[in-house]
């Protein structure tokens, strides 16, 4: 993403403010708790309760303070075309301070990814990484086994999130082992093992236009750049991501084995790794926290669906659409959030058959912010920054909100949503979820949601 001069200035300003605030907080904690290990600002307990919060609660905030904001929100929604529902919660008290039919289940679009993010951060250590492995069978078959990394790169391992693990690096490592093995076969044939995920690779309920428009592709346990044809941010998605990656690996391995006693024979085929196959080597992708951040900021549907299946596997469920949604709902309930009325058919929010209420989404965000699990408290960092990054790059650009709000966007035909967190003028952390449906102009509806968010500051 290219950053504008004004955006860079805002980033610099916020960084300075955050640094000063962090130093002040650190100093206060270090001086006030002699003999105890200093806590980071993210780990400090809130004065209001024994739980924890990403932001300190306002000392002078009250329900009465919100009356003017409530009137402003009602006026904004009343004057707009479409059906608007909303929920706003004060994190430090857990109180809903504004609701406009907030308990009514609606189509969340990509705001549904809020549940997927929370489930992923509960399911795996934030430093966990998914691997892509090569194994050698006794009959000379070389297996390329997908372990859930769908952000592979074609080249060498890199520092980027998308492309952290490179197929060329995997090929070079594999070739070196074969070259150094006196008992290595004279030729190997490559078999792609993408059996980790089960069931339908494409949800039957998805509109076919979602595939032709590049929103999604067949969900498989290994893919390059989120099933895209290149590392370009908006490159089209390939129809068979795992086989495309396997063919790239085959070419890289053939090149890496050039001049050695072992060569690659035949074309890549699909199969399941033999029980007697021994592991040769592997490459590991970005950490779960990085993958979640990538998915949230770019609203990447493919990564969301892969994460859903990996969450299901971690809970002993089938790595299918049904297993993924059941696992995510279990993790949602584990946060203490009621799940009655939620209907999930995918992990990305692509289907118009998904249903969840704004109040359930704000409850997830509030529970995450108060969690003793640091990864969950950091959940807002998986969302774009208003006016600066991801799907909010060109939204909420006014100086009063840019850099202050983090939120997950969502868009389907006739539907737009916005779910996230901010700190208002009194220093109170608020979480919000705003739905607009039955709209004739998505741009107008987005503008309405943006005005509503600005009114919360």
From TrEMBL:
Cited Pfam families: Peptidase_S13
Record keyword Methyltransferase present: no
Enzyme class: hydrolase
Biological process, per Gene Ontology: peptidoglycan metabolic process; proteolysis
Molecular function terms, GO-annotated: serine-type D-Ala-D-Ala carboxypeptidase activity
InterPro entries: Beta-lactam/transpept-like, Peptidase_S13
Protease listed as a keyword: yes
Key words, A-Z: Carboxypeptidase, Hydrolase, Protease
Top-level taxon of origin: Bacteria
NCBIfam families associated with the record: PBP4 (TIGR00666)
Family to which this protein belongs: Belongs to the peptidase S13 family.
UniProt protein name: D-alanyl-D-alanine carboxypeptidase/D-alanyl-D-alanine-endopeptidase (Penicillin-binding protein 4)
Source organism: Neomicrococcus lactis
